[in-house]
Amino acid sequence: MTDHSTDVAVIGAGPVGLFAVFECGMLKMRCHVFDALDMAGGQCAALYPEKPIYDIPGYPQIGAADLIDRLAEQAAPFKPVFHLGHAVETIAPSGDGGFLLVTASGTRVTARAVIIAAGVGAFGPNRPPLADLADYEGRSVFYLVRRREDFRGKRVVIAGGGDSAVDWVLSLAEVAARVIVVHRRAKFRAAPDSAARLQRLADDGRIDLVIPYQLYALEGAGGQLSHVVVADLDGATRRLEADALLAFFGLAMNLGPIGQWGLVLERNHIVVDPATAETSQPGIFAIGDIATYKNKLKLILTGFAEAAMAAHAIYPRVHPGEALHFEYSTTKGVPGGVPGA
Ligand code: FAD
Predict the structure, then answer these.
(1) Residue whose CA lies nearest to ligand 1 atom number 53
(2) 57 φ/ψ angles, rounded to the nearest 5 degrees
(3) Engineered SS bond to 253: which of 59, 123, 190, 207, CB 3.0-4.6 Å?
(4) How far does residue 307's CA lie from ligand 1's centre (Å)?
């Protein structure tokens, strides 16, 4: 028994997976989309939502989160079914030429073809080793910022010393009631210009630097923080008043289960035929950052083109015996007209 059956299963709801839904939709193929994260957008949403991207054709500049919103809007007329917060664990032949996918939570979906758009693999935050952390996660402890407005007027402790931590200090200093930066070293690993701006904010008394300290304990009730306790290298502690803690200790990235799917890999990437994006397993395709071939460029726009090629290569599997007449989108249009028009 399976829970769902579809034409194409797309693993990864990053920018490239989302565009694959559009390309498949234009060729009358329905998609179910899986992502280990509980939101769409992949690296754009999780790592740099408010940064501008300059090399998306037609957009001289677009914020990463805005790009994801537009890709989701572009895919919407084709009614994709999203399984967010569901990592795909296994792919196996379903016996009828298709595939059975099973997620970590036990959801089972059969598909005529699979597109793996899994980026750098399933990724999640490196979590600080603090007692009772889970009680606060998602309520007052966060590993990414979806909207900086959520922190307006709040006392925010930001832990970490890399680009994400420093970028968010610079940004949230404009809206938060107070920003306290906790880092276990005196020096920040961020881009020199950003680190210098952070130092200027500290010199002007607009943020507090608590260095070299590391996180030690959380205090609060019902998931709401009241204090973050930090310790110096000798173990002496300080209690910092806080409404929220943002911990930026990087994302753990690994291929995860993808390495067990029997596909030919090269340095943790899936080897594909660049003409079709098909992997060593017929019917399973890989696109975007996870796919590799000679001279591969890991860019969003490259992934978009790979999505189009994969969709065309998949078409005969979903519509056997039906000739595929190439048509421009200007000729075909999209269901329901132009999204957002
Ligand atoms: P991703 O965005 O990595 O998304 C893959 C998704 O697959 C993830 O959400 C992951 O959770 C999910 N996944 C993985 N394994 C599984 C599984 N087993 N089950 C379910 N889900 C799974 N590129 C540009 O073109 N221009 C830029 O200016 C640019 N700037 C960047 C700036 C930064 C700071 C960073 C980090 C990257 C930048 N990039 C840029 C690179 C760009 O973000 C990537 O090329 C792009 O995100 C790749 O998209 P993707 O959809 O292939 O993969």
Answers:
(1) 119
(2) -55, 135
(3) 123
(4) 14
